[in-house]
User: Which sequence fits this backbone?
């Protein structure tokens, strides 16, 4: 399957920047050939209150966005999505750094270790709510693409869990840059019955990809020293992979 101008694609993004990071070049290539492409951000909700955990406060300070960080990150995302030629949809579940256990009221993810640990039982209801919202919103003919969850970030885990609970045939994208530390896992996927298709990315697609990540200016420091380092990393990633891969699990 290549670019044919007749396909409809929906990419599930755990956070505002994840699809831009992982496969922005592919989204641009598809949109250039009139394929209908939309990025649906799962954890795009406002914090339940301004009473943030110390960890969330620390992240806000790093991002330099102030208390209204989610709203300003959505503004970044609208610019990014426009650069890729895609449409967008936002769901009301807050980022994990804002979520509290519905039973105890305690913050569930208060450290870097918690961010990359196990999903908490308090998120079971969140998964159920999202599955209902997605099933009501998805057009029947669309190809649904979700993250593999490489890096084990809880919101990436949650997004994949939600998508797989819909009972649909899915495509998966490799979470970049988490993928760089999970290459052994990706190699093992082939032996476990996974197949990938590589989609070529043109020089124009690479430029749009890098620009779409750059639009998420508050998040660059999460992974790189500066914008230039990000652009070099994306170019090297594309060069080493000869395109962007989407994965599917063969049925047994």
Assistant:
């Amino acid at each position: 399957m290549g670019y044919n101008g007749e396909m409809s694609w929906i990419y599930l993004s755990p956070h505002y920047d994840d699809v831009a990071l992982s496969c922005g070049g592919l989204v641009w290539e598809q949109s250039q050939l009139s394929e209908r492409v939309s990025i649906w951000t799962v954890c795009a909700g406002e914090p339940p209150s301004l009473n943030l955990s110390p960890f969330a406060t620390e992240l806000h300070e790093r991002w330099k966005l102030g208390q209204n960080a989610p709203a300003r990150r959505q503004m970044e995302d609208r610019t990014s999505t426009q650069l890729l030629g895609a449409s967008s949809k936002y769901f009301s579940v807050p980022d994990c750094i804002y979520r509290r256990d519905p039973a105890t009221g305690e913050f569930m993810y208060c450290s870097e270790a918690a961010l990359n640990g196990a999903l908490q039982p308090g998120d079971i209801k969140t998964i159920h709510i999202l599955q209902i919202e997605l099933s009501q919103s998805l057009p029947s003919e669309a190809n649904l693409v979700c993250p593999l969850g490489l890096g084990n970030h809880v919101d990436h885990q949650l997004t994949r869990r939600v998508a797989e609970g819909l009972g649909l045939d899915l495509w998966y994208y490799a979470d970049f840059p988490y993928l760089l530390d999970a290459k052994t896992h990706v190699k093992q996927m082939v032996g476990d019955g996974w197949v990938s298709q590589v989609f070529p990315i043109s020089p124009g697609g690479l430029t749009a990809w890098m620009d779409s990540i750059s639009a998420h200016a508050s998040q660059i420091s999460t992974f790189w020293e500066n914008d230039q380092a990000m652009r070099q990393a994306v170019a090297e990633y594309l060069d080493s992979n000869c395109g962007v891969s989407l994965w599917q699990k063969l049925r047994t």
Observations:
- The chain is about 45% helix and 15% strand.
- The chain has one domain: 8-249.
- The longest strand covers residues 8-13.
